Amino acid sequence: MADYSVITDIGLSLVKVLREALVPELISHPDGVGLASPMDKGDMNLTVYLYDVRENTEVRSNDLIDQGDRMRYPPIPLNLSYLITAHSSSDVLTRAIDEQRIIGRTIQLLHDHAVLKGEDLEGALTDTDGTYRIVKADVPLETMISLFPNQPYKLSAAYQLGPVFLDSTRTKSVSRVKERHLKLQHHESQS
């Protein structure tokens, strides 16, 4: 069961994995990696920005879930699209080098660590058996640039995570069959 916080918990799980791989080698402190728009980066060196949420129609189900005296409508499966952007506050001579190292390590990590599960999971997902695929997304450069309105584009990589199942709050009452009456009739065959 995953309520609306599952979207945040997936993002925080992704941040956790990135922090463990990048701090302190490429990023000096854990707060240097976080959930933020690349335009609102603050002191972060790597921002993880959820820019699109879409239904995953390949795994959608119409089956109600039995909960005893109630049936819950099925969860909606979602794919979450993230833009991961490197930021460096170094001087102009080394800024691009730092950002390319950070993005390079990020891509390497997410290629090798293509599933969030178990110890990776945060929030309500902790101690669940959920597994969430991480896939490098081919996003047109124009789309990525559009995520930086009125600012120059920054080195970024796009990823999709999912499916993430967001539970429905809709239920319907059901009554169970408690007793069944059968009436048997014997028909004689004619010969």
Explain what this protein looks like in three dimensions.
This protein is α+β, with helices and mostly antiparallel strands and 191 residues long. The chain has three helices and nine strands, in the order H-E-E-E-E-E-H-E-E-H-E-E. A six-stranded mixed sheet has the order 1-2-5-8-7-6. Strands 3-4-9 form a three-stranded antiparallel sheet, with no helix packed on it. The N and C termini lie far apart (62 Å). The model has no long low-confidence stretch (mean pLDDT 90).
Record the SSE blueprint.
Layout: H1 6-22, E1 33-35, E2 46-55, E3 65-66, E4 70-72, E5 76-86, H2 92-112, E6 115-117, E7 131-136, H3 141-146, E8 156-166, E9 171-173
Parallel strand pairs: 1-2
Antiparallel strand pairs: 2-5, 3-4, 4-9, 5-8, 6-7, 7-8
Evaluate the radius of gyration.
24 Å
Percent helix, as a range, is: 10-25%
Unreliable stretches covering 5 or more consecutive residues:
none
Count the DSSP helices: 3
Q: What's the N-to-C terminus distance?
A: 62 Å
Order of helices and strands: HEEEEEHEEHEE
Question: Strand order, biggest sheet?
Answer: 1-2-5-8-7-6
Shape call: elongated
Estimated share of beta-strand residues: 25-35%
Structural class: alpha+beta
Round the mean pLDDT to the nearest integer and report it: 90
Q: Main sheet? A: 6 strands, mixed
What's the total number of strands? 9
What is shown here, in short?
This protein is an alpha+beta fold and 191 residues long.
What descriptive keywords fit this protein?
191 residues, 3-stranded antiparallel β-sheet, 23% helix, 27% strand, alpha+beta, 3 helices, 6-stranded mixed β-sheet
